[in-house]
Amino acid sequence: MSSRFSRENPEDKPHKRSSIRMGMKLFQLAPESENVTPYATFSKPLRLADGQVELEATLDKAVYDRGEDVGVSVSIANHSSRNVRKIKL
């Protein structure tokens, strides 16, 4: 809730009948015409090995509603001669 009133001095307090209280909710509208799914690609060269490890993450859609599950697909490609033992996401 937000409360606002007009005053001449900073010490003035509002009277209940001359103040306004209102609740505000923020929302955004997204255009539905775009069918582009967001993605990100990251590649990292490994030390003491030839090649690199590539990680690509894609979302299943571009816009989500509040409370909706977000589906993420992750693909990892190892183009190096070493084995990758652990990956943190």
From TrEMBL:
<protein>
    <submittedName>
        <fullName>Phosrestin-2</fullName>
    </submittedName>
</protein>
<comment type="similarity">
    <text>Belongs to the arrestin family.</text>
</comment>
<dbReference type="GO" id="GO:0005737">
    <property type="term" value="C:cytoplasm"/>
</dbReference>
<feature type="region of interest" description="Disordered">
    <location>
        <begin position="1"/>
        <end position="22"/>
    </location>
</feature>
<dbReference type="GO" id="GO:0002031">
    <property type="term" value="P:G protein-coupled receptor internalization"/>
</dbReference>
<dbReference type="InterPro" id="IPR000698">
    <property type="entry name" value="Arrestin"/>
</dbReference>
<dbReference type="GO" id="GO:0001664">
    <property type="term" value="F:G protein-coupled receptor binding"/>
</dbReference>
<dbReference type="GO" id="GO:0007165">
    <property type="term" value="P:signal transduction"/>
</dbReference>
<dbReference type="InterPro" id="IPR014752">
    <property type="entry name" value="Arrestin-like_C"/>
</dbReference>
<dbReference type="InterPro" id="IPR014756">
    <property type="entry name" value="Ig_E-set"/>
</dbReference>
<feature type="compositionally biased region" description="Basic and acidic residues">
    <location>
        <begin position="1"/>
        <end position="14"/>
    </location>
</feature>
